[in-house]
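Readers outside the structure-tokenisation community will struggle with the description of the input data as it stands. I therefore recommend that a typical entry be quoted early in the introduction. An entry of this sort, consisting of the sequence and the corresponding backbone structure tokens, reads as follows:
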Amino acid sequence: ILLQLYNLPPEVRTHIGRLMCVGVIPGPRAPKDLASFLLPLDDECAKLAHGVSTYDCSEDCLFDLHAYNLYPLGDIIAIEKFLNTKGHNSFHPCRSCKIRAVNDPNGKKTYYVPLTRQGETLIPSEILL
């Protein structure tokens, strides 16, 4: 789990020395409950959102530091686990829309999103590219 500081310039915020590693989730057999790994980080983020008294050495004074989790980034599998969704091989594979998948016609436990639904005709000129 890496934290990125967005108040740094874009050209340096992704450098390895500027990222903060706050945890490692074991794999390939990842835990069933990712929230148990994220709970300590979530608690710290909640404290930072309310403000934490911090010393500013350049001004020689204390100030309230606030930090917020803007949005999570990751590959498909990581985001599925973070959002606690079923994933890309489920009946509703998209986390942003309500598209529905169908069963694999070969009887496997696999879902896929077809280009057309049963009874529909695909008209190439109407496809948005």
